[in-house]
Amino acid sequence: MKNQRGVSIVATALAVLWFAGADRADACVCRGPKNAKEEAKVFRENRAKAVVIFVGRVVSLEVIKDAPPGWPRHTAATFSILRGWKGISSPFVVIDSASNCAMAFEVGQEVLVFGYGSPPEASVCVSGYSRRRPEDIKQIEQRLGTPSWRPKS
Fold first, then answer.
1. Is CB count within 10 Å lower at the N or C end of the chain?
2. Cα gap 85→93, rounded to integer Å
3. Average pLDDT over residues 106-113
């Protein structure tokens, strides 16, 4: 009897979340590659799928939509581009942060961004290849090769 009651409570809670339209139920789930061969494949796929790839410095943040405490806010980060490998044609790019897996940014931060979708968004998932730590940025830049875009001096 106790077990049935527990199952009933869980089922009711799930139904309430479902019917209440709790959009946070689709929490970010990241799965990293299992081995070096799979990682190389995931890197190639992400490079192909990304609409922009660049290293840039966050120059401004704009809150698009506020969120309840404990939930991420929908923001747009404007980057000054330092080096670009894909999809860069101007010195500034705006990256969106609307999804559960979106990367959070801080003004002044230097970030390697693999941006996906329209408007482009950077993922916190390891397999998304967006990075903040300088040693990670350097390692991925080596894999990307020579940038195709740099700011004019």
1. C
2. 13
3. 94
